[in-house]
Specification:
176 residues; 2 domains; mainly beta; four-stranded mixed β-sheet; four-stranded antiparallel β-sheet; elongated
Length: 176
């Protein structure tokens, strides 16, 4: 679909090309490009004039040198976070006690967290608050090929590595 849109717009498409700088002169955007691996002109730098330029990458991380005052608005810094994704299987189901549920209550298959009213959303070090995780999902039940027992596939998104203590609490295991 996008290929057809570009052809219909009679757009210039430069594959295997890196944009290194952008400036505006005489009503045209001058784009300096460098051919990269896969191109017959590897390492060749050229300047091409365009009426319109569309950037499809986060500007802060593009490495493109920009003419001063070219943009009316410079995008804000993106506040990325460190994210640990933990995938594992266990024959155990999530413990309702860990989530303060009543005895025998069904534990949801997906748990998403938010900060409590007393927690500071501006504190980048405590971004998940006391829960310690962004989300926990039970993806599916499987049969362990070695034991032939039923196990559950879990996925946890958290700002830190998952600890043994956290997992013990999550599954209601008393550690010594």
């Amino acid at each position: 679909m996008f290929d057809h849109m570009l052809k219909a717009a009679d757009a210039t498409v430069l594959l295997n090309t890196t944009v290194t700088s952008l400036e505006k002169k005489n009503g045209k955007y001058n784009v300096q490009v460098s051919s990269s691996k896969g191109s017959p002109d590897v390492g060749v730098t050229t300047i091409k004039p365009f009426d319109t330029v569309i950037l499809t990458a986060p500007l802060q991380f593009s490495g493109i040198e920009m003419q001063k005052d070219l943009l009316k608005h410079v995008p804000d810094e993106i506040p990325y976070v460190t994210l640990h994704v933990t995938l594992f299987t266990s024959p155990l189901k999530l413990s309702g006690a860990h989530f303060n549920l009543k005895e025998g209550a069904e534990v949801p298959t997906t748990v998403l967290t938010t900060l409590g009213p007393e927690e500071d959303p501006g504190n980048r070090h405590k971004i998940v608050g006391k829960s310690g995780f962004f989300s926990i999902s039970t993806l599916k039940a499987i049969t362990n090929p070695k034991t032939l027992g039923k196990e559950y596939v879990y996925k946890i998104f958290s700002p830190e590595k998952v600890t043994k203590e956290f997992l013990s609490s999550l599954f209601g295991i008393q550690r010594k």
